[in-house]
Amino acid sequence: MTQFRKGQHVEVYRSSKDENWEPYMMAYIGSHGIVTDPDTVINHTDSLIEVSLDGHGTHRLPQDCLRIIEN
Questions:
Q1: Model's pTM, two decimal places?
Q2: Strands 57-62 and 48-53, how do they pair?
Q3: 18 and 25 Cβ atoms separated by less than 8 Å
Q4: Tens-digit pLDDT profile for residues 2-44
C-alpha cells in the first residue's frame, strides 16, 4: 500500500472503485497535483486524501485513483 505524504506530486491515473467517486471526477483523470492533506492519522486505502489539482482546485479523492509521480 502506498503511503501518501504532504507535498508529494501525484497523478489521477484512473477512476476509483470507492463509493466516494463521482461521475464528474472522470474529468480529473490525467490531472497532476500535490497532496495537501494525506490524512496521516488513518492513511489506509479507504481514506480520502486532499489533493490540489492543477486547474481543478482542491479535492478529497480516494487513494486508489492516485499514483505518485516524480517531478
A1: 0.85
A2: antiparallel
A3: no
A4: 788 999 999 999 999 988 899 999 999 999 999 998 875 555 5
R_g (Cα) of the chain, nearest Å? 11
Strand (E) positions, 1-71?
A: 9-12, 32-37, 48-53, 57-62, 66-68
C-alpha span between 28 and 10 (Å, rounded) = 12
> What is the extent of the structural domain holding 13?
9-68
In a domain, 2, yes or no: no
DSSP state of 16: -
Any idea what DSSP says for residue 55?
Answer: T
In the chain, how many domains are there? 1
